[in-house]
Write a structure and sequence with these properties.
16 strands; binds FE2/S2 (inorganic) cluster; alpha/beta; 2 domains
Length: 249
């Protein structure tokens, strides 16, 4: 059940380029499903709205997230040191729909790999296709996924590691190697759209983690609404995980 946790920052460090890794600890126990997210209250009166971040790792009393520096909030967060108190509402959203014994491929681009990390650590039979801009970004994610997946496939935009190009360039080859039951995707919208098209063409189940500008994060304000084939849906409450067939890209 979702609730407010009073947490303290254990570490908050640059992981690579403009991506930071944040680990918080709290009293009380948080249980969450891969794909769910938290709403962080930034520790300053300047920010009224919470910021949504995906769960990258969770061991009940410690939670890890990764965030890219985007605007005022994330830039401020990067300046906050360990020991600082911070509160968060969790767990939010629905999470991925995976059953025991399914063979899963995770496909992520950039910081979209963060929530997929929690999936890699939670499910048994998992491979990952990592998309990074550069070798240093790909290295970060291959280090984080190491030991949590059976096989890793890597692409970089500039070809400095793995295959040169986008995840959608390597995906057809990866899909032809093994019989996946489902592909879970998180990253920029254009990447998710292209990946979903390739996966659905093969009649494989595809779940995508959608983003929407969020205010309340609790289903009360409509700011995160998303057009789907079933009508308008709220990313924070009906998602962020959606069946890719339902999305109007
Ligand atoms: C379900 C979900 C999970 C997310 N998980 C991650 C993650 O694991 N790592 C990560 O780096 N980013 C993640 N994001 C995006 C992240 O929330 C935004 O980058 C962040 O809120 C930007 O805040 P800002 O103050 O730096 O930017 P600003 O642009 O200054 O933000 C202004 C306002 O818009 C909202 N906003 C801006 N961009 C987004 C966005 N893309 N999605 C939702 N609200 C936004 C902010 O929360 C804030 O209220 C996630 C978004 C959603 C919806
Ligand atoms: S953020 Fe308010 S309804 Fe989703």
């Amino acid at each position: 059940m979702k609730k407010i946790f009073e947490a303290h920052i254990i570490s908050n460090e640059c992981a690579v380029d403009d991506v930071y890794k944040l680990t918080v600890g709290f009293d009380g126990r948080l249980e969450a499903r891969p794909g769910q997210f938290v709403q962080l209250r930034l520790p300053s009166n300047e920010f009224t709205l919470r910021r949504p971040l995906g769960i990258a790792a969770l061991d009940g009393v410690r939670l890890t997230m990764f965030y890219r520096l985007i605007g005022r909030g994330t830039k401020f967060l990067a300046t906050v040191g360990s020991g600082t108190k911070i509160d968060l509402i969790a767990p939010l959203g629905n999470g991925f729909n995976v059953s025991d014994g399914e063979k899963i491929l995770l496909v992520g681009g950039g910081v979209g790999l963060a929530p997929l990390l929690f999936s890699a650590r939670s499910f048994n039979d998992v491979d990952v296709l990592i998309g990074g801009k550069t070798a240093s970004e790909a290295e970060l994610w291959s280090r984080e996924f190491n030991g949590a997946v059976d096989e890793m496939f890597i692409t970089t935009d500039d070809g400095s590691a793995g295959v040169k190009g986008f995840v959608s360039d390597l995906l057809p080859e990866v899909l032809s190697k093994k019989n996946y039951d489902a592909v879970l995707v998180c990253g920029p919208p254009i990447m998710m759209k292209n990946v979903a098209a390739l996966v659905l063409e093969k009649n494989i189940r595809c779940e995508v983690s959608m983003e929407g500008r969020m205010a309340c994060g609790l289903g009360a304000c409509l700011s995160c609404s998303l057009e789907t084939v079933d009508g308008r849906r709220k990313v924070c409450k009906d998602g962020p995980i959606f069946d890719a067939r339902k999305i109007i890209w």
